[in-house]
């Protein structure tokens, strides 16, 4: 190990003495020595094993399985989810290969050409479906128990002692049940079976089969598989329709929907785009036929729900009352998702409707994006089906009885995700100001005193969305509440647990990063596991319990000898009426007697990233290598950007200027050698600042907008909608359409001041970018070229928005970006591709 470190230090020390190609090879080899734990951790049902992926050079190539009792560790290959089989085994996958690890013996078994795999927990067996259409079932010791051919699909559940197969056999399609020992046919048809799934907590199996000599309908079959399989439903549904199930009252009833999409003939010569079309360029999502039924599995009773053809029916967890609405009514793409307008509650018993009105989605703060995001649904129903809660204005919640009668308005803004208590008496609300409690029967809203002034999230709530995601059931299974508390100003997280009628601190406030999905726990919520990291601390797994005992469980044997030498400072400044922060990273081996250049990265709020582990292989921020820049002798600065009434660009300019004013009190920053970089929205901000600032030596802008008017009136193929929603109610936060304030858009459009750019700028874009049209970058390049500015543009013909899926292109971009910084901020002029522009310009 010491020898390896010595070699690495020697290579780094000779960096500046060798040609650029050798330097780049040295950087790549240096990066390969870094690894990190990543992805979502997995826990076995009984809580005895934890699994996590390990990344090398930004690629997941292996996984570790750790015993939570004795710290025993197994390593297996795998790049995706880990599937535990009780506490005896685990399955992992990499491409089309699967590996099974016996956790008792440590033996591993590998399988190639795999389509699907599954554990049979109750039997300590697992099944592998391969590309040759064979399903093979194995014991936990790798012994093959069964081999069945011509298998098209499988259905399974950890709660069952058998699995179900769809097989083609001598011209007919069969559904088989097998445990690995006994196999039997439970259904067959001369037609084809198009879909097979387990429903109602794996108590029922459903499948759709084509009916012979019938061009109008298919048949939906539902079978009870709790004992001897038997048909409980045979239902004719529209031909080629999609069937969805929504469980009502924990499976006492099912809402069955069958939707057939419009089969529209596409003219190869011309496309017709109508001004009143709520499905612009999405006609494959238009439903031409809808059918709905209420089904009671206990007595096999089926009742048709008769509504007009264009009306959608969603469950609110009641077997009598249903939400109805016309899809995309009055939708003009001002919001990202269609709003629920003209909603009604349909009374199936009385065949009557009660008007609810237009419903608006509530937004809630998201830690990862540091901005608000829409909740998953507009309506959240109680587990007992008596209540639902929704918003009529997007600001406040209204509580309704299941029949649509308004019960009460909760007179408070900022309440986020609602969760019904286990006893059905209260509703808990996440918010950016702590956890709130609403007493349903006394109409009393109060603060819980947990997380005052901080962002709270309930970790153990269960959310079950309906098949259209417009309604959800949100509830707690027990009276215990696990709450995550996040301080946005200090980037600190803690956890509180409510148990036995009182709150207790489970994890005290920590500056370590614990992502929301990186905190897991066993089924009885007595032991908790976190994946924690910091900018100078590689990710590791820690364990906590209710006795306030905690310890390191697993660190992946990751060694980062320089991590503790990394230095960070947080600066505070004000802009657009808000308190903001900037993160400053120091050059490695910082010498207080020297001055260093600084690179500034911008996007939106970045304070939340201050405790991300600084691996040089991080994919984010895109095209920005913080650790590498620090190693190469740069200050790196990440200031927050928020938006105000003056518009996106002018707000970004104010934020960056004020952030610079604060950080430049540091005497070691060379004020004459500062670069600015951004990607996507940060690329737009960089473009704008470049047209309005003289504080930067050079700029790098990737995949950024330059012409707001053209972008506002463009069609976005990634979001599959007109792009003006992103300006009025989305990321650009302009808050008004162009027609209401044309000057606002003109003043914030970089292209209109392109002639004012006064420093060299590097632009880049992927020509297959479906998010920001790549020719927005071309337009900025053309403008800069017209006015004889120093610009070089990198266009990647096969590249997407961020080049994440184009590693060769990303490597080329990253190499050129580092060369660009060195050229303009460190005066290393031996770069031919840059000299071709700069030296010609100065000749």
Characteristic key phrases:
41% strand; disordered N terminus; Thrombin, subunit H; 843 residues; six-stranded mixed sheet; Methylamine Dehydrogenase, Chain H; Rossmann fold; hydrolase; mainly beta
Task: Tell me the layout of helices and strands.
Layout: H1 2-13, H2 20-31, E1 35-43, E2 49-56, E3 59-67, E4 73-76, E5 83-85, E6 89-94, E7 97-102, E8 108-111, E9 114-120, E10 125-130, E11 135-139, E12 144-148, E13 151-155, E14 163-169, E15 172-178, E16 183-189, E17 193-199, E18 204-210, E19 217-224, E20 230-238, E21 242-248, E22 253-261, E23 287-296, E24 301-305, E25 312-315, E26 321-325, E27 340-347, E28 352-359, E29 363-366, E30 371-374, E31 379-381, E32 387-390, E33 398-401, E34 406-409, E35 415-420, E36 426-431, E37 436-439, E38 444-447, E39 455-458, E40 462-465, E41 471-475, E42 481-487, E43 492-499, E44 502-510, E45 519-521, E46 527-534, E47 537-545, E48 550-554, E49 568-575, E50 578-585, E51 596-601, H3 626-631, E52 635-639, H4 648-663, E53 669-679, H5 681-690, E54 698-702, H6 708-712, E55 715-716, E56 721-722, H7 724-728, H8 742-747, E57 761-766, H9 774-786, E58 791-796, H10 807-825, H11 832-842
Parallel strand pairs: 31-41, 51-52, 51-53, 53-54, 54-57, 57-58
Antiparallel strand pairs: 1-2, 2-3, 3-4, 5-6, 6-7, 7-8, 9-10, 10-11, 11-12, 13-14, 14-15, 15-16, 17-18, 18-19, 19-20, 21-22, 22-23, 23-24, 25-26, 26-27, 27-28, 29-30, 31-32, 32-33, 33-34, 35-36, 36-37, 37-38, 39-42, 40-41, 42-43, 43-44, 45-46, 46-47, 47-48, 49-50, 50-52, 55-56
Helix pairs in contact: 4-5
């Amino acid at each position: 190990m010491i020898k390896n470190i010595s070699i690495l230090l020697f290579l780094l020390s000779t960096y500046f003495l060798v040609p650029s190609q050798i330097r780049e090879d040295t950087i790549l080899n240096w990066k390969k020595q870094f690894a990190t734990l990543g992805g979502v951790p997995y826990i076995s049902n009984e809580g005895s094993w934890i699994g996590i992926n390990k990344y090398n050079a930004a690629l997941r190539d292996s996984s570790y399985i750790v015993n939570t009792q004795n710290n025993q560790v197994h390593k297996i290959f795998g790049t995706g989810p880990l599937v535990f089989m009780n506490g005896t085994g685990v399955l992992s996958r990499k491409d089309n290969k699967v590996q099974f690890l016996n956790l008792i013996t440590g033996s591993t078994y590998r399988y190639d050409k795999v389509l699907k795999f599954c554990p049979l927990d109750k039997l300590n067996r697992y099944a592998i479906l391969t590309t040759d259409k064979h399903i093979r079932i194995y014991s936990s010791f790798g012994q093959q128990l069964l081999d069945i051919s011509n298998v098209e699909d499988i259905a399974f559940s950890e709660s069952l002692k058998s699995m179900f197969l769809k097989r083609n056999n001598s011209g007919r399609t069969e559904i088989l049940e097998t445990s690995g020992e006994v196999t039997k046919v439970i259904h067959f048809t001369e037609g084809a079976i198009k879909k097979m799934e387990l429903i109602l907590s794996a108590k029922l199996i459903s499948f759709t089969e084509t009916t012979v000599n019938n061009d109008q309908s298919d048949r939906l079959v539902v079978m009870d598989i709790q004992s001897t399989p038997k048909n409980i439903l045979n239902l004719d549904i529209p031909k080629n329709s999609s069937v969805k199930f929504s469980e009502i009252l924990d499976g006492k009833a099912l809402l069955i929907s069958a939707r057939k999409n419009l089969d529209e003939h596409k003219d190869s010569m011309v496309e017709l785009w109508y001004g009143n079309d709520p499905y612009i360029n999405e006609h494959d999502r238009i439903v031409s036929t809808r059918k709905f039924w209420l089904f009671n599995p206990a007595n096999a009773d089926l009742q048709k729900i008769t509504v007009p053809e264009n009306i959608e029916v969603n469950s609110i967890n009641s077997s009598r009352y249903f939400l109805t609405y016309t899809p995309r009514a009055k939708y003009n793409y001002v919001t990202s998702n269609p709003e629920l307008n003209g909603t009604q509650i349909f009374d199936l018993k009385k065949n009557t409707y009660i008007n609810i009105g237009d419903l608006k989605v509530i937004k809630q703060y998201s830690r990862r994006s540091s901005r608000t995001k829409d909740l998953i649904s507009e309506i959240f129903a109680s587990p007992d089906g008596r209540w639902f809660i929704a918003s009529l204005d997007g600001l406040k919640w209204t509580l309704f009885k299941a029949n649509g009668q308004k019960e009460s308005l909760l007179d408070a803004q900022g309440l986020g995700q609602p969760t019904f208590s286990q006893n059905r008496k209260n509703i808990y609300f996440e918010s950016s100001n702590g956890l709130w409690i609403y007493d349903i029967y006394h109409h009393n809203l109060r603060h819980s005193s947990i997380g005052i002034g901080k962002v709270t999230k309930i970790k153990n709530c269960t959310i079950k969305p309906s098949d259209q995601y417009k309604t959800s059931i949100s509830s707690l299974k027990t009276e215990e509440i696990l709450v995550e508390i996040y301080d946005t100003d200090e980037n600190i997280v803690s956890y509180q647990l409510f148990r036995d009628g009182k709150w207790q601190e489970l994890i005290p406030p920590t500056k370590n990063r614990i992502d929301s999905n990186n905190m897991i726990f066993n089924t009885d919520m007595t032991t908790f596991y976190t994946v924690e990291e910091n900018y100078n601390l590689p990710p590791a797994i820690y364990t906590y319990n209710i006795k306030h005992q905690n310890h390191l469980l697993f660190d992946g044997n990751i060694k980062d000898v320089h991590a503790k030498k990394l230095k960070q400072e947080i600066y505070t400044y004000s802009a657009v009426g808000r308190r903001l922060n900037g993160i400053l990273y120091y050059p490695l081996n910082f010498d207080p007697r020297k001055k260093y250049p600084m690179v500034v990265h911008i996007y939106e709020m970045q304070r939340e990233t201050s405790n991300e582990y600084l691996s040089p292989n991080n994919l984010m921020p895109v095209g920005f290598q913080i650790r590498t820049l620090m190693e190469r002798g740069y200050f790196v600065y990440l200031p927050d950007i928020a938006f105000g009434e003056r518009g996106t660009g002018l707000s970004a300019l104010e934020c960056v200027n004020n952030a610079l004013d604060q950080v430049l009190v540091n005497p070691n920053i060379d004020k004459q050698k500062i670069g600015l970089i951004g990607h996507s929205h940060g690329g737009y901000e960089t473009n704008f600042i470049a047209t309005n600032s003289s504080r930067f030596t050079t700029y790098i802008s990737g995949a950024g907008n330059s012409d707001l008017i053209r972008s506002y009136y463009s069609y976005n193929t990634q979001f599959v909608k007109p792009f003006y929603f992103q300006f009025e109610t989305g990321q650009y936060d302009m808050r008004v359409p162009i027609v209401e304030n044309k000057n606002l858009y003109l003043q914030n459009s970089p292209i209109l001041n392109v002639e004012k750019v006064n420093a060299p700028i590097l632009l880049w874009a992927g020509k297959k970018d479906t998010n920001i049209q790549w020719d927005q970058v071309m337009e900025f390049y053309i403008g800069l070229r017209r006015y004889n500015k120093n610009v070089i543009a990198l266009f990647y013909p096969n590249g997407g928005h961020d080049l994440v899926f184009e590693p060769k292109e990303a490597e080329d971009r990253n190499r050129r970006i580092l060369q660009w910084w060195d050229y303009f901020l460190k005066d290393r002029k031996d770069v031919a591709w840059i000299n071709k522009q700069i030296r010609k310009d100065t000749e």
